[in-house]
Design a protein that fits this description.
Helix content: 25-40%
Number of domains: 2
CATH class of the largest domain: Alpha Beta
Distance between the termini: 65 Å
Number of helices: 11
Radius of gyration: 21 Å
Structural class: alpha/beta
Number of strands: 13
Length: 303
Amino acid sequence: MHRSDVRKAVIPAAGLGTRFLPATKASPKEMLPLVDKPLIQYAVEEAVASGIEDIIVITGRGKRAIEDHFDRSVELEENLKGNGKGQLLSQIRHISSLANFCYIRQSEALGLGHAVLCAQRLIGDEPFAVILGDEIIDADVPGLAQLIHTYKKRNGAVLGVQTVPHQEVNRYGIVSPRPIMERLHEVADLVEKPSPSDAPSNLAVIGRYVLPPEIFPILRKTRPGKNGEIQLTDALKELSKASPMYALEVQGQRYDAGDKLGFLIATVEFALKNPSLGSEFGEYLRERMVPAKGARRTRTGKA
């Protein structure tokens, strides 16, 4: 396989989902529904639409629901078939045929760098993508496809970035950029969660990466940092010293569904775009925002 072909993607999904407790006490955060699909399915569909064929999900204890979701459910299919629900049946069958799935258990949540390292044996000597499933990108051209296009042209690691408000840089990995052309920069340095006064820019890494296999030996040598975790950012900084690394400003609307407010915002926006829900939901929101004349009525017509 030619080294510029990106056919494998890693989706880390071993985190504990503490920001969504108690909802995630017994259910994976990745299976939280964004309107009518779990978060992780949006990541898988973006990967497949970008040309990815093999998806490696890094899981942990209590994540079995992810495997079940992308597996066939013969009983459910027979039930839908028997009840004449053909459209639902085709949707359910489509989920299990999206890609080739492999699952690797991360015994401890030791950081994003460790999660990526867990996939080394399945990646081999090929470039690969990393997608963080709680970053949802709504774009005409899939966010990951934009990165893969750049990787094929530049043959160096590509990080997806977007501008964030200056006061929010301490929530992200921030790129120190050397502009090359519109939307594309060479990475001079990476700073993890800097204070606004120390940030080299407001270009934040947004959970989309295309990486060469050379990242693996660097990850193996990377020492644990904060909270005893192996940080992908530390390994990327080392990689950038050895070979060119690029930051691409991804075109599209990004939603940080990794916290409650971002998840709610994404839910509203995707519900409004939903063909079967959007019109009625939009009408409800308009009514909800207009100051009520008397008691506000519920959708059942009762005050």
